[in-house]
Amino acid sequence: MIDAGQQLAQLLEELRSGADVSPERMKKAAAAVVRATRANRRWRQREARNKALRAALAICERERPGDGIAWLAMKLRRFESDTLPRWAALKSPPENAQPLQCNLFAAFKSGAPVVQSIKRLEEILDKKKRCSRPASLAHPVGSEPGVKL
Question: Is the pTM of this model over 0.70?
């Protein structure tokens, strides 16, 4: 049995050669590409958010050794309620922004939801629990396991 990536390659070759391809088969191929694209976008957004949160945590741990996560959670809530509404239309933080504010801004602008509970921040920022890439992205576009075109 060939995988979905090979089936997609065959479908493209058939289209190039002018063969008749059923609309149903084309829909399935398009759906597989859309799923992979969305998964890739969400993964990149989460990675950008996590990178910004890790940098912000490093700053918070320097300010409050041993209490960094709780301090970060408080700073996130304060930033979201006070600063973010004023900076919402900006593409980047103002020049006079502090490094912590720049990282919090990047986390909120990443497109991924920014959690503010201490427990979730610990889970997200715990490097031992992080996986490098979701399973759906371990395969080429359109070749997710179990997808048949």
Answer: no
Nearest-angstrom CA–CA distance, 64 and 104: 17
Nearest alpha-carbon partner for 66 in 57, 75, 77: 57
Spell out the per-residue pLDDT of the chain, length 149, in tens: 455 566 677 778 888 888 887 888 777 777 777 776 777 888 889 999 999 999 999 999 998 888 889 999 999 999 999 999 999 899 999 999 999 999 999 999 998 999 888 998 988 888 544 444 444 444 444 444 444 44
Domain range annotation of the chain: 4-137
> Alpha-carbon distance 53 to 72, whole Å?
8
Whether 5 and 140 have beta carbons less than 8 Å apart is answered as yes
Encoded amino acid at 149, one letter: L
